[in-house]
Design brief:
Layout: H1 3-20, H2 32-39, H3 50-61, H4 83-95, H5 106-122, E1 130-134, H6 137-155, H7 160-163, E2 172-176, H8 181-189, E3 197-200, E4 220-225, H9 237-247, E5 250-254, E6 279-283, E7 295-299, H10 302-309, H11 340-375, E8 379-380, E9 388-392, H12 396-409, E10 415-419, E11 422-428, H13 436-450
Parallel strand pairs: 2-3, 2-4, 4-5, 5-6
Antiparallel strand pairs: 1-7, 6-7, 8-9, 9-11, 10-11
Helix pairs in contact: 1-3, 4-11, 5-11, 6-8, 6-10, 11-13, 12-13
The protein binds pyridoxal-5'-phosphate.
Amino acid sequence: MSERELLRRTADHAADFLETLETRPVRPEASADELFATLGGPLPERGSDPQSVVDALVDDAGPGIVGIPSGRYFGFVIGGAVPAAVAADWLTSVWDQNAGLYAGGPSAAVVEEVCRGWLAELLGLPAGVSVAYVTGCQMAHVTALAAARHQVLAQAGWDVARDGLAGAPPIRVVVGAKRHVTIDRALRLLGIGATSLEVVPVDDQGRMRLDELRLGDGPAIVCGQAGEVNTGAFDDLDAIADAAAEAGAWFHVDGAFGLWAAASPALRHLLKGSERADSWATDGHKWLNVPYDSGLAFCAHPDAHRAAMSVTASYLVHSGDDRERDQVDWTPEFSRRARGFPIYAAIRSLGRAGIAELVEGCCANARRFAALLEAGGATVLNDVVLNQVLVRLGDGDRTREAIARVQQDGTCWLSGTDWNGEHAMRISVSNWRTTAEDVERSAAAILAAASVPA
Ligand SMILES: *Cc1c(COP(=O)(O)O)cnc(C)c1O
């Protein structure tokens, strides 16, 4: 079989998979034991022809593939993948560019620079922000907070790149009690441990309580949140920006999915003040609906960003021209995938209007979910300001049981969380594919699961 035939056949496998999404259960159908039985075995001594490898992969992995691209997948905050982005992602693999250096892929570098400008406009960021294309919001936090660490210490007369953290002035890091765990891990990787965190209490939606926010002087970083992972709630970013400006603190925004509210004229108000932040972390793989993995860090201080990330080595061909950007100087990775291509394709295929529609459509479906479940006797625990719905069906234990039944039923998939000491069901609507009918079918399945007697 020629390479062309192999790719054609693979495209057919891919299309077959997408066509099964309507009818197959959203959950996986095989246990870990079953998957090890079909996918495992000894290290192959000899190779096999590519076609049989791909065909066997499709057969053997199939039962363990989750219907994440389905319009009825509502777990975590996942996002789907728009067709143009999937196709561009395939080409990214075929082209196999090394986007670390301009010399390793001029088109990759230019596309990333073009998207930088488009994304700044869509997300309401200052036009001059620098960008890093990384694996996810986790590494976007690492990148942005490394720039923050560099800058707040430089302001205190300390060069962290040269001297490290030993003996450095302490950095106060102020975070909300409902921050995402990836903030803590990013700080840990940067040598800032748990005892350096000052945790601000939050209100019933998970928003930082501003009456408890104190920044003081000295090197400080404050992390605000645009989109709490359970409720979708936004911190009062405007007030945090004021406090940060007064204290001379670095203001970082975790907007993994919530930053995309800026793409909607109807929702942009939720982000008031975000434009005054010093750095932002978000995802392409969540609400822009590009395939995994795709994270984005933005920084209002390109010099600090670059100082925190840049490398020099005699064998690297650095172009030195601003229009021929070497990504190694902006990301924690060295060699890297050309993640700009799928982002570029998603933006071109949707346009500004299509992205606004995607975001608003998900929010409308989240409100529809909340209304249907409430009408069926469930308690909606959050103000549905965005795409997240937090629900309790009776008490926490009944909710936990209902979630297990919903997952087993397979009409849709979602999971739970602890909210104020009791279990709750989380629903995240973040996929372009989700229709009103998907929501109606799923709400009916949830209410049926909740009505089974204990
Ligand atoms: C998903 C999420 C993250 C982590 O993003 P990854 O892309 O999974 O690394 C961080 N913060 C919030 C608010 C999130 O929802």
